[in-house]
């Protein structure tokens, strides 16, 4: 064999090894990308399911609050001055209000959407 033939065979072998590494690398990349795709799809499905469950729970809580409001209104209708006096309560002689001074610290931004 001549020097050129040996060099040509060596280059062909190196190209074959590089091609094989490239194919293995691409296959590994495809496997990783498919795994990531599966993870993100599963995560999305999980979040959609949990959001619908939270929506149902919020509806249930809203319904419970409405029932409690109705019960409260019924109980306040039954409360009269005579019942209060029977429980030992009396009418206030003077009515006082507590007022808190506004905070001395305030922040107004020149870029604020609300101008004073």
Shape: rod-shaped
**Cα separation of the termini:** 94 Å
Taking all Cα atoms into account, the compactness measure Rg is 39 Å
How can the largest sheet be summarized?
Answer: none
Helix and strand run: HH
Global mean pLDDT? 83
Structural class: mainly alpha
How many β-strand stretches? 0
Our estimate of the beta-strand percent is: under 5%
Q: Which stretches of 5+ consecutive residues score pLDDT under 50?
A: none
Structure annotation, total helices: 2
Helix-residue proportion: 55-70%
Condensed summary:
The protein is an all-alpha fold.
Question: Explain this structure to me?
Answer:
With 116 residues, the chain is an all-alpha fold. It has a domain at 3-80. Helices cover 70% and strands 0% of the residues. It contains 2 helices and no strands. The protein has helices at 3-77, 81-86. The protein starts with a helix and ends in a 30-residue tail after the last helix. The mean pLDDT is 83.
